[in-house]
Amino acid sequence: MDNIAGTKSSLSWAVNLSVIFLVVLWLIPTVGLLVSSFRDRDQISASGWWLSPFAVEQNFQAKIPAGEVRQDGEFFVIEGNIFSGGEGEVIRFGGARSNPTVAAAGETAELTRDRSLTVQANGDFVYRSPAEIKRDPSVYYSTATPPDFSLDNYQTILFSNNMDIAFINTLTVTIPATIIPILIAAFAAYALAWMDFAGRGLLIAMVVGLLVVPLQLALVPLLQFHNSIGIGQSFLGIWMAHTGFGLPLAIYLLRNYMVGLPRDIIESAKVDGATDFQVFTKIVLPLSFPALASFAIFQFLWTWNDLLVAKVFLPSNAESWVMTVKIADDLLGSRGGDWGILASAAFISIAVPLIVFFTMQRYLVRGLLAGSVK
Amino acid sequence: MKARFYAGAAALALFAGLAHADGHQPFAVGEGDFSWDSYNEFADKYDLSGQTVEITGPWTGDEKEKVDKAFSYFTSATGATVNYSGSDSFEQDIVISARSGSAPNLAVFPQPGLAADMASQGLLTPLPDGTADWVRDNYAAGQSWVDLGTYADENGEDQMYGLFYRVDVKSLVWYSPEAFDEAGYDIPETMEELKELTDLIVEEGGTPWCIGLGSGAATGWPATDWVEEMMLRTQSPADYDAWVANEMKFDDPKVIAAIEEFGAFARNDDYVDGGASAVANTDFRDSPTGLFDIPPKCYMHRQASFIPAFFPEGTVVGEDVDFFYFPAYAEKDLGKPVLGAGTLFAITNPSEAANAFIEFLKLPVAHELWMAQGGFLTAHAGVNTETYLEDSLKAQGDILLNATTFRFDASDLMPGEIGAGAFWTGMVDYTTGASAEDVAKGIQERWDTIQ
């Protein structure tokens, strides 16, 4: 029975296990980022995110007010509670910074210079010294700190000044920068796939060649050009830049998809008297929808996440910041030390692309195969 | 219900923002210890209503807020609007915008090396005549600030391009006074004492140093500061200058000795928190937190004056943490060298208002307005040091003013490919086990290829 096609292999559990293993392995960084996004900078540098769900024993310092000293025989004694009215439970304590957990709660610790210290679990302490106490002595104690998560990072980002403007700016950049290249590329792809003219092959080769040109090369000359024709740093400029940078891939992808459409349909339409424009709008465009959608997803994600192009082609004042620039230049703090902000910013800025992705993902798989199968 | 709550919170945040914007000027003109006379005189002299000064610089986040507040006084004095924008990647942005012709009026350079590069390509405009004389007369150790701001233009002629505004002192060792007090350690006055103290801490079971070199793409730079400090403490200032200019080769025995002096601290497993292998992996922003742990993970941390920004929230400089001068060798007759760095203003797109702004920066009050907000040191000798926000800043300022030798961060002066590249990565290689000779030789070879 084992060899009959269609039955489950007895080793399927191994497959499942390894799939689970790989999924967990791939998710670890994301989970770490998610956990870190709920912690502040000090917590992140104090302990790893994997320790954050557990109560940790942490050491603290408390100052005993020397003013409350009273004399008890030949000893000077201070009594009180280290939590000064608050709640808490001492696990271990000590009188020296270098050895803060020398005794368990309830015991008496012998300190230097014949002093002694007793701390109860509820925080009540007795500090005895044979000599006069001049400065406030320090008591060190360890106590279990419950896990501490907060939404502060998210609050900082969502409610910071001008975040709404940055969000709208990002949409102002991404939506036209997604639509314009699709419009142009669809026309170009049709022409390259279905219209006969001299040098068509060469044109296709050039477009493919452009795919390998890194966009960083074009930043300075392109901005120079924008300045000379009067666009300068503006939204119009960044739409044109994104369009230019996105076109080679768009044309290549769409052309390869369109060339795979059945020749019969297009030829019959032409026989019936359809013009190229009619063939394009009535037949080719509707049939190419999966490829258009998948390119739209790519282009949208890339313009949404873009920092470099936005920094170069938009003015640098706060009114024209897109979200990525706002996060990098404003919220991360001077010298970029706020890891918590970075983590939560990642999750906030991922939200819109996720919505786009999940609403259009059924086209993505089809679109990824675009042009690959004839 | 919930939606309403959030809307309310959003409205509150918005109003808080507005209130914030209204209170833009934290100090009333004419009140406090500020040098308002210079401000009033300046305000009478200039009327630039309707003009705008565009400035870009490396200050972001909290620092941008302080800058905006300090510069708002230029607006109230002249009527011209100041648009300051900070960028995390300033070094790249300014080159792109200057080359493509959309440069701001003024740029704030954190590294003189980059400003010198841009000056030699003709992308900067020299400061108004007389600025050099003014700096010479009004800055402590004025001539050195003039030299640091003077570069060759595209024709090879020296011009004054940079006016320093904001200085960092690097030769500081941070420590917890309480930890020192309890352990009975004294502040070392000489390098010999510092080394003895280091050994003593190890003997008593502690870890003396926290060193972290991590800094994203710039990983390694804190080590270059260490090497520069050691250079200044083992060799003459003339040797240091020759090293910066590559007249003394990077693999000169004197430089290798300085690298090994740094290695004596950083490559000793007993001396550094986490052991020598942790040095290159620890982020420089995280490394000082070891001072505040109970029990202390380390007792000392050598870092520039800006590092309190990365101490845990609520830390008070002067109480929870303090600093001492990174001492010099008593046996070597080199005085008390101080290493520093700073940011300089240069004109990238000249205008009347830009020139006026340079004049504004010469006023003591322009410096005092940031001094009073904290995190700012100045070499301007005419300021009222009473306006420093904290005594600790004043003490750092005094270290600067009392230095027998002041030298600027060498890696900021070297060509970018070395000072912001090969030197950094070389130091990471060194702390992870490569020999000082190999590392120094590698850096010199890189330098040879760009000359």
Task: Please outline what is shown here.
The complex is a heterodimer of chains A (374) and B (451). With 374 residues, chain A is of the alpha+beta class.
User: What's the mean pLDDT score of chain B?
Assistant: 88
Q: How many H/I helices of chain B?
A: 19
Order of helices and strands of chain A: HHEEEEEEEEEHHHHHHHHHHH
Name of the CATH first level of the largest domain in chain A: Mainly Alpha
Oligomer: heterodimer
The CATH architecture designation of the largest domain in chain A is Orthogonal Bundle
Report mean pLDDT of chain A, rounded to a whole number.
Answer: 85
Spans of chain A of 5+ residues with little confidence (pLDDT < 50)?
none
Spatial extent as radius of gyration of chain A: 33 Å
Distance between the termini of chain A: 38 Å
Helix and strand sequence of chain B: HHEHEHEHHHEEEEHHHHHHEEEHHHEHHH
N/C terminus separation of chain B:
69 Å
Percent range for helical residues of chain B?
Answer: 40-55%
Quickly count the domains of chain A.
3
Most extensive interface: pair and counts? Answer: A-B, 44 and 47 residues
- CATH fold assignment of the largest domain in chain A: MetI-like fold
Tell me the number of strands of chain B: 11
Q: By helix and strand content of chain A, what is the structural category? A: alpha+beta
**Rg for CA atoms of chain B:** 23 Å
